[in-house]
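Lab meeting, action items carried over

1. Structure of the two-component assembly. Owner: GW. Status: complete.
Input record:
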Amino acid sequence: MSDIATTHATKGTIGENASRPDGGPKVRGEFAFSGDLWADGMLWGRTLRSPHPAARIIAIDIAAALRIPGVHAVVTAADLPASVNYGLEWRDQPVFATDVVRYVGEPVAAVAADHPEAARQACEAIDVQYEPQVPLLDPAEAAAAPPIHPDGNVFRQLTIRTGDPSARGPIVVEGAYEVGMQDQAFMGPEAGLAIPADDGGIDLIVSTQWLHNDRLQVAECLGLAPEKVRLSLGGVGGAFGAREDVSLQIHACLLAQRTARPIKIVYSREESFLGHVHRHPARIWMRHSAEADGRLVSFEARILLDGGAYRSSSYHVVANATCFSAGPYKVENALAEGIGVRTNNPPCGAMRGFGAVQVCFAHEAQMDKLAEACGVDPVEIRLRNALATGDRLLTGQVIEGTLPVARVIREAAALPLPPSPEIADPMTRPGGAGRTADAAHVRRGIGFAVGFKNLMYAEGYMDGSAARCRLSDGLATVTCAAAEVGQGFVTLAQQIARTVLGVEDVLLAPADTSIGSAGSSSASRQTWMSGGAVEKACQAVRAALLQHVADRHGIDPAQLTITDGRVTSTDARDSIDLAVADAAPGVVFEEEVEYHHRITHPLDDDGQGDAHVSLVCAAHRAVVDVDPDLGLIRVVQVATAQDVGRALNPLQVLGQIEGGIAQGLGLATMEELTLRNGRILNPSFTDYLIPTALDMPEVLATLVEEPEPGAPFGAKGVGEPPTISSTPAIVAALRAATGKALNRVPVRPQDIALGDGE
Amino acid sequence: MPERVATLSPIRLSVNGREYQLELDHRTTLLDALRENLDLTGSKKGCDHGQCGACTVMLDGRRANACLIFAVAAQTHDITTIEGVGAAGNLHPLQQAFIDHDGLQCGYCTPGQICSAVAMLAEVEAGWPSAVTPDVAAGPVDLDESETRERMSGNLCRCGAYVNIVAAIQDVVG
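Predicted assembly:
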């Protein structure tokens, strides 16, 4: 965490490849991530977690743990002074389990000790008597099963009905698909430092996606007024959705309150896998019918999402999965039913793509089946059905903003293909050098996919972001609580301030709760929401500065403008030409604003409503080489065109696209948390594989810039689209190379080399 | 804790050209010694099991996972961490290239990537082949893109900045 980051670039406005202000500290190893924090007299916290997916707690005996030298406190649910539950959207998750545990990894107690090893020993010494129960592990049985939680087993059931769902075209394709449980697997494990304050409050420095939501949950559980809980952003080592839910925040603050000592908690890699939500595993059935030329007539879908033991963001993941289940295609008649259920599996919640990822894998497989059934090229069939501005979504909402679906399809399809495998380097064959069973058997496949989703929160959520701008003698300071998680918001905030104010030097104050909420760094929303707040704050300061100059010169401020860092008049008779830095010596301008997007509305009983602020799309074309004998694969190239509205920093946009493709490739070919009896079998980077530099394909990208009306600078969020359709494009390429159905991701070597791939 | 006192040893570490005299539990990893005892937190603990590469440092110029080495076993080596690679105003060319090519997003893996790359370039300079070197007897290694990817494959980056990391390294190779 750099306290204040400075940039002295003369350039660096919107549209340029400005450098990250935190890049210098990060390449020097000086940037303080939350796990790097330290305080005088601090103790180490550690969490005891349930080994059972379902059990009654008969008794908890902490006496032996307290006797271990160096142990300062052991806390359980009995020590919570106020609310005993927390949760991102709904408080259904116990801070510590009381009478029952509902998943393997559920917190049962926490310990503070003077050394991490003492804390570990103390956790082992806590005697919890469990009476194991039969766990509810199959999501298909959950809705009808006896409730495993007072709130029941169904997080949400959403039906979208439009037109005449019984309408049928002559061509019908049907399929069942599955998506495994993916993990965000960020590199910097959960970490935080809670420091008890003299006023009875707590200061918490933590890596999170949403400081203010964390604060509210901590305050509720500690029985403190929210203003007594002050959060600052610790350096965040990646997030991807997994830091939206509270992990160690309440535990650390409770231990700090109890011991009156600073408490540091850092999760191990294994605990990180247990301690955050995952991407919902999905079982999806779809049936499409079309005219002979491939134009869609009807669409039906049933989507089952396993939300695990607690609600997290399941309610809204169900909405996204259902609302976007048909993909970016026109269809008049539809019945889409989504359900998210509670089980004794690990809790699932937000991950990049948020519901759209799962259904895109299914609808894109269906579009390929339809193309084959109609004898139409896969690219062409998508073009024939592409949504555009003015069309209606499944929810009846008319698309008012930009949504260049046909254009991203054409642009992605037009990118050059890689050289044929015959002339390729033998060292780059599937599986790496020399591992191919028989080079003559290697087959190449090409696949295409398109995806879309919404930007920002939906269904009437009153979303906003606050920002403050201060200008003094040409130095701008921007304050905003938006969590920088690697996406580059800090770069954009500087670029926006430079653009509006015409100054070179922009300081970024630390992100903390001393200002209003910026909302979450999720849903591809910060460029729009907090970018909008920063722009609005800077514009207010700009207006105040121009008013000041106008007053001093006795002219109309409407005549003044800021161009190339100078205040000038549009009226040639005025001789005003002042550097912004010299325009108001000694005067401090400061404005704080809130920014809101347009109002959206809930969905009705038929899933109809104007629920989404804005939409974004992307297309991917993947080229793979497959060794069918060993099931080894190599993704050779991914070409993409993405709807970005306007690229505020093209280099950073490309980074998001490449990174999103890496995660989409992971889901397509290697990433899955495997469960046995509700227990994660592979909570390590040896067993949960994520792509390396060797797995990363060549990426060709075209940025499609059609500015979005109403969006600050016309820019759309860019983080999620690359993860949505890259997975189905890669799997389509694998199908093309192997002829196998491959209805489940991740596709494993045995799915290709053995069996029928169903 | 009494049982910990019984396992303490005097340990001498040479890090970034400075000598440190410490008294540590024998079981302390080099990574923990750097982070907890020397306040050199640039080396990151991404997994503590040698799987992610975020803790990569150099021992006598050769890259190593600091989480897999006990501090006692590192006493005979000159240790270089990211803090010794370059400083503000005097960045190593690789550090500058990572900035120029945006070879990072969250930055957590970056110190390990850079330490790994610095040592990797020395390996190439010394003519060490890799698993993808076409002819191990052919003399100097041509550090092309596939060689770079192979040699950097021990450093995970979840933000997926690999394209730009490879570009940054290729830029320094020239």
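2. GW to write a short summary for the group page. Key points so far: Helices of chain B lie at 2-5, 30-37, 93-100, 110-125, 145-151, 162-173. Chain B touches chain A through 63 residues (CB under 8 Å).
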